[in-house]
Amino acid sequence: MDDSIYTRLRRRQASVPWRQTPPARHSRRPLRETTRTIPNSDGKQAAMYQHLGAHLDRVNGVDGARFAVWAPSAREVSVLCDQTHWQHGNFWLNGSDSGVWTGFVPSIGHGAAYKFGIRAPSGEVLEKSDPYAFFCEMRPKTASIVYDLGNFEWHDADWRKRRETTNWFEQPISTYEVHLGSWRKPTEPERTYFSYRELAHMLVEYCHEMGYTHLQLMPITEHPFDGSWGYQTTGYFAPTSRFGTPHDFMYFVDYCHQHGVGVLVDWVPGHFPMDGHSLGRFDGTCCYEHEDPRLGEHPDWGTYIFNYGRFEVRDFLLSSARFWLDVYHIDGIRVDAVASMLYLDYSRQQGEWIPNVFGGRENLEAIEFLKDMNTILHGEFPGILTIAEESTAWGGVSRPVYTGGLGFSMKWDMGWMNDTLKYMHLEPVHRAHHHSELSFRMVYAFTENFVLPLSHDEVVHGKKSLLSQMPGDYWQKFANLRMLFGYQFTMPGKKLLFMGGEFGQWLEWNHNTELDWALLGHEKHDGLRRFLGDLNRVYRDEGSLHEVDFESSGFRWLQCDDWQQSVYVFSRHAKNPEDFTVVVLNFTPVPRYDYRVGVPVACDYTEILNSDAQIYGGGNVGNQGKVRTEKVRSHGHAQSVKLSLPPLGMLILKPMASSPSNTMSPRG
């Protein structure tokens, strides 16, 4: 017979009525600290949201809600709500050896606001939101809301079935990163935000128009401060009420899936805010965080750091990660600030951190937590993605746990982002002296499964928008940005672009206002957006640009040492190596005529994309759509083509394998 704390918790919740007298203070065993995850009695791990929190129930014929909260050092716990006039002492919960307080409250139903009144060891009564709440009041209010997550009819079974059998490493992943509160805003003055349901229709239509495969939502977990963009989470099981109810968010995901758009969400297990109603010093002691600030406080963000070595804290976070996949059917999580979790000395000076038991700087408990998380999620939800924002050279982030890795599906390539933007910021006349800064990426490109991000972090805090970061005059800024996107989409790795970059917003992102959609209708902005849409479609259609992103067989340099002219040429290859494309990049504003490039196959080559095409706002320098090889040896190949390279431009060439080889001069 299974007699885990989960089984005993369910048994107790089903039998213990609410009380109007304080329970006797219980004696507690020491809290366990372990690196193992104990499954529930139904065999599933990390599903404590099924038991803790508020759940509608009927006891002895009376409708109400059963409550359970972990507060191991509390002297007493009660439920605060309208029925108690928000006074501590009417609806008492019963304590237990595990530190979980439980009880049934009659006549409290769906939509009721509540908090927990927790008497700390000091005697102070703390009013705390429910850590496992499914819904919360709109800020600045801070109460939790009883919410029945059932009664939603999903229509995404086909999508989820396909997802389970899809090898995403070989599929195109072009992700549109979105902050829901500032993508678009209603025109009605009484409305601050569009709803999840409205945004679902608008974003799916936009993703189809632009060719994106996935949406990545900046954190939609509940948070009190708009300016944190969701990265200071107070509701790890609650979609923010800014855009509607939990059922509204279910509709959002379901609608995306029905129309072929994947949904990823940012998830923040690295730290949590110090707001008084939230997790910090939850029962008057450090439950979720470490007592010692050298372990428990983040010096940069003014937040608490989770105690990953405490079993109950680990299960809280593991349950949160599982919850979004289980209840909301999302397709994966992007885990924020992984580097801050891995290193005990992250952003700390000597003497401001405590070494691990071996004297090192690695956070051993956090490492085990991340491994457990990835093992559980990938084991139970085949086809989902876990993506790490990890900014150091930590090895094996996206390698399996059984080989010693952390187990993530993919990792953001922050080195690529930094090196590329640093290079693009240079005036073209100086790029010749920094030529290796782009080619260096290929030294490590296949050590992880990389995503190439141009995210929100690159267009805030005075960095300017991507377009404004580009050097040169008006024309050159747009040409540089088109080339940047072309370079990003043709290099090995999956793709991510933050909203607004696709049409060249001039101002850096401001979460308080919507994107500058008024720019649409202007020639250069429309051209840039048209180019990004066509680039997405070429990326999706050409297997050579996405099938072999994580192995060296998918990429070959054809020309990487022409530093005098700042030209790069490489080929991308599909699983069938005879299926390939040739990419040519000219990082100067000088057109290059009769530029010879050695190519693998003697045949005609179609120019399937030219960033300098007039419809994109360019000058139309190109090759009239097609070039033919000549029997002239170049770059190690027996045949080559002569090209007209557009200024600050990118070309993608595709071989027409059935065409005969010949030595005709190129036309254009």
Question: Please, could you describe this protein's structure?
Answer:
The protein is an alpha/beta fold. Helix 4 packs parallel to helix 5, helix 7 packs parallel to helix 9 and helix 14 (474-490) packs parallel to helix 15. Helix content is 23%, strand content 22%. The strands form seven sheets. It has an eight-stranded parallel β-barrel with strand order 9-10-13-16-17-18-19-20. It has a six-stranded antiparallel beta sheet with strand order 21-22-23-28-25-26. Strands 3, 4, 6, 7 and 8 form a five-stranded antiparallel beta sheet that branches.
Radius of gyration: 28 Å
Outline, from the CA principal axes? Answer: elongated
User: What is the level-2 CATH architecture name of the domain at 5-145?
Assistant: Sandwich
Number of helices: 15
Write the layout of secondary structure elements.
Elements: H1 5-15, E1 53-59, E2 62-70, E3 76-81, E4 91-92, E5 100-106, E6 113-119, E7 125-128, E8 144-145, H2 157-165, E9 174-178, H3 180-183, H4 196-210, E10 214-217, E11 221-222, E12 235-239, H5 246-258, E13 262-267, H6 293-296, E14 297-298, E15 303-304, H7 311-326, E16 332-335, H8 338-342, H9 364-380, E17 385-388, E18 410-412, H10 414-425, H11 428-431, H12 436-439, E19 450-454, H13 466-469, H14 474-490, E20 494-498, H15 523-541, E21 555-562, E22 567-573, E23 580-586, E24 592-599, E25 604-610, E26 626-628, E27 639-645, E28 649-656
Parallel strand pairs: 9-10, 9-20, 10-13, 13-16, 16-17, 17-18, 18-19, 19-20
Antiparallel strand pairs: 1-2, 2-5, 3-4, 3-6, 6-7, 6-8, 11-12, 14-15, 21-22, 22-23, 23-28, 24-27, 25-26, 25-28
Helix pairs in contact: 4-5, 7-9, 14-15
